[in-house]
């Protein structure tokens, strides 16, 4: 399969001091939550393929997350009605690439075929933290749903060296004060040797060495928003991959 690449990064986190420092959280305009970029059609075709071929690896749902997932489906459909590229009908949604997607079925499976974002639903764990309770994750960057489902934030980020106890407390504080009308976003960028979007990797498997400079840059625009009815926190991930040679200013660093 040929590489699915963007012509440019919509967000280069190293280029702005606000996004360059960890965790780099900034306010998000709610209307700008879901993005549609220049790789929409090939990315969505790959999402369709993965959801059909390996649904158990790219989708998971705990029963306690069903109400939140349904609420998320309604919210996404509301956003898509404001995008002139979509035709949101009572039974089907026609995407900008002309593909028609039925609205019924498992809510995150449906959403995984409608938008470029991967979507993770986090629920309170009863002890002051949040756990991953549902997700559609077609484009993992060196992690797997199998290992992360039902786990708390700090455990999810266990392999990430910079995600220490202090950073974990700061991130949890953001979850605690997150307001439905005031979502947040951040971005990361990593050098990659392989441009594939679907790159699952178990925690025990080390990430292969990447040459410097890397041939590709993989960036994620990550958003946090709270669902008003269920109170669940949605963590969305919009992935872009570009050739490093086409991206001026790459600092030669790996940034989570």
Characterise this structure.
The protein is α+β, with helices and mostly antiparallel strands and 256 residues long. It has one domain (26-202, 211-246). It has eight helices and ten strands. The strands form two sheets. It has a seven-stranded antiparallel sheet with strand order 1-8-9-10-6-7-2. The chain is globular and about 45 Å long. The protein starts with 16 loop residues before the first helix and ends in a 13-residue tail after the last strand. The mean pLDDT is 89.
Nutshell version of this structure?
The chain has 256 residues and is of the alpha+beta class. Helices cover 25% and strands 23% of the residues.
What gap, in angstroms, lies between the N and C termini? Answer: 27 Å
Going by helix content, strand content and strand pairing, the class is alpha+beta
Counting DSSP E segments of at least 2 residues, the number of strands comes to 10
Estimated share of beta-strand residues: 15-25%
Q: Using the CA coordinates, give the radius of gyration.
A: 17 Å
Largest sheet: 7 strands, antiparallel
The secondary-structure element order is HEHHEHEEEHEEHHHEEE
Low-confidence stretches: none
How much helix, percentage-wise, in residues?
25-40%
Global mean pLDDT: 89
- Count the DSSP helices: 8
Overall morphology: globular
How many structural domains does the protein architecture include? 1
Strand order of the largest sheet: 1-8-9-10-6-7-2
């Amino acid at each position: 399969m040929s590489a699915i690449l963007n012509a440019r990064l919509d967000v280069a986190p190293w280029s702005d001091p606000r996004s360059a420092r960890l965790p780099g959280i900034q306010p998000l305009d709610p209307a700008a939550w879901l993005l549609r970029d220049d790789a929409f059609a090939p990315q969505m075709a790959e999402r369709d393929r993965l959801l059909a071929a390996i649904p158990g690896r790219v989708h998971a749902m705990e029963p306690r997350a069903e109400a939140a997932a349904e609420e998320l489906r309604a919210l996404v459909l509301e956003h898509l009605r404001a995008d002139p590229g979509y035709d949101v009908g009572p039974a089907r949604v026609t995407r900008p690439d002309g593909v028609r997607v039925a609205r019924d079925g498992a809510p995150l499976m449906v959403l995984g075929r409608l938008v470029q974002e991967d979507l993770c639903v986090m629920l309170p764990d009863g002890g002051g933290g949040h756990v991953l309770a549902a997700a559609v994750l077609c484009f993992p960057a060196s992690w797997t749903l199998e290992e992360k489902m039902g786990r708390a934030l700090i455990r999810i980020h266990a392999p990430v060296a910079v995600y220490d106890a202090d950073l974990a407390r700061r991130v949890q504080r953001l979850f605690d004060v997150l307001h439905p009308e005031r979502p947040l976003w951040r971005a990361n960028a990593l050098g990659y040797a392989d441009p594939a979007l679907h790159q699952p990797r178990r925690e025990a498997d080390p990430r292969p060495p990447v040459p410097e400079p890397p041939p590709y840059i993989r960036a994620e625009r990550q958003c946090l928003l709270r669902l008003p009815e269920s109170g669940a926190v949605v963590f969305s991930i919009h992935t872009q991959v570009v050739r490093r040679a086409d991206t001026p200013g790459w600092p030669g660093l790996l940034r989570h």
